[in-house]
Amino acid sequence: MKLVIDTSVIIAVLVNEPTKKKLIKLTKGAELIAPHSVHWEIGHVTKAIQAYQTIDIKFIDIELDEALVIADKAKIYAYDAYLILCALKKHCPLISLDNGLVDVAKNFGVETVEI
Question: Which residues contact 17 (CB under 8 A, 6 or more apart)?
Fold first, then answer.
């Protein structure tokens, strides 16, 4: 199964948040996919860079103009729109700890993984 992964999930696992075990269980065996923006967002957590580099994530290109249409319609940050567009393009669910992002994704017809 392919699964679009949000930065919030990666960080929760890397810094040992209470949801870590559940997140690992939910993503085990999945092909993790993300827009390149996730890679850049991880830079905010410099303490976890070495562990992050061991996670197998397939990064894909996102059409900026399409993402900005989503961002404008939903009144969300472009980074969140990239994730929604990634899930739409790859026809796969999105996993995130950001409830606002999950709600908007559902409004655009994206399947989400409940945590």
Answer: 11
Number of domains, the chain: 1
Backbone angles phi, psi at 72, to 5 degrees: -70, -45
Q: What is the pLDDT of residues 1-24, one digit of tens each?
A: 999 999 999 999 999 999 999 999
For 69, the token pair is 């249409």
Strands 94-95 and 31-35: unpaired
**18 domain-assigned:** yes
Report whether 68 contacts 85 (CB < 8 A). Answer: no
Q: Which stretches of 1-115 are DSSP H helices?
A: 7-14, 20-27, 36-41, 49-52, 64-74, 78-90, 99-107
| Prediction pTM value | 0.88
- Determine the structural domain holding residue 71 and report its residue range: 2-107
